[in-house]
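Hi team,

Filling in the usual template for the complex we talked about on Friday. All components are listed, including any nucleic acid strands or ligand strings, so the model treats them as one assembly.

SUBMITTER: L.P.
PURPOSE: interface mapping
COMPONENTS: two
RESIDUES: 374
SEQUENCES:
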Amino acid sequence: MSDATSINHELEAGFGDYFALLKPRVMSLVVFTALVGLLVAPVSVHPFVALVAIVCIAVGGGAAGALNMWWEADIDALMLRTRARPIPSGRVARGEALAIGLTLAAFSVVMLGLATNFFAAGLLAFTIFFYVVIYTMGLKRRTPQNIVIGGAAGAFPPMVGWAAATGGVSLESLLMFALIFAWTPPHFWALSLFVKGDYARAGVPMLPEVAGRDATRRHILAYSLVLAAVSLALGATSVGGPLYMAVALVMNALFLRAARAVARRSDADSDGDRHRAERALFRLSLLYILFMFGALLAEAGLKSFGMGGW
Amino acid sequence: MRFRPDHELHRRRASRNYGLGAVLLAFAALVFGLSLVKARENGVPGLRQAGAGAPAITAGEAGR
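RESULT (copied from the run log):
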């Protein structure tokens, strides 16, 4: 061989690049909601087993993120928001992301099964399958309801946490699932109203591009009403209580007011004040999920002191 | 004698190696800790007998 090959040192991956494959920001929401699901369950879990369960759920979520990046490398390269990710930037090969994703998925599911129970492990495996195969490979590029379907994948972690403690499903865990499921569309559609053009460039059929921006505003309000109903219903179950209900009433009133403000505006209004109402709704949605799950955790904490709950 | 400073390439490879080492150590610690907790919660059959004060060999067995 006479060719002298040069190595581009900038493309050598560091540890952080592999960690970035796991989508750490998404993982933080997964960890928080799974932890709440596990801690509010009526069965106590040894703290170390709880730690292992949360690590497994976080790693399983990360594995799904790596597999998502493996599949979406082509469209990630086209979008401003995603083109610095490890694969489109050339630092990590697609095959590496696939190998890491599959390995971590297998490890997290088996370890969760051994640490807690195999029902929770099966639910975690289904979550990864749903996010990677049904959402990423199947529906994301085909339907403008992609956010609604993708939201289901993000809604599973509290159910997995609950299952890790109890070994099953209950009304409470289903309503925690429904809370995140109904929260995701207004959260992402508010974002998509002020981050324009990226998805259109990649050919992903987001609702504002397909059904129109006014229709998206109405969808946001409709899902916000569903979200309010679900969150109040959750408050009436065994994991709710007066504190949760008070937080739910305040947060839902604020959320509905912000969603109505977005629904009543035209695009011209939105451009006029640089999407103030849309940005406000997006920021509020982050606080909303933090406060609602925080209130569930607080109720569980109060119960251990003989207070809280109904 | 002075060594040449590390190239950026070596730093990236070192970060990968140390990172992977830390992940493997953390995994070993989790499995070890989990084994201890499970053994304590569920008990290990042989150990539980001895721990309960039962003699390791019964009188009948000793006489055989």
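MY TAKE: Residues 33 and 48 of chain B are 19 Å apart (CA to CA). The interface with chain A takes residues 7-9, 11-13, 15-16, 18-20, 30, 33-34, 37, 41 of chain B (CB under 8 Å).

Thanks, L.
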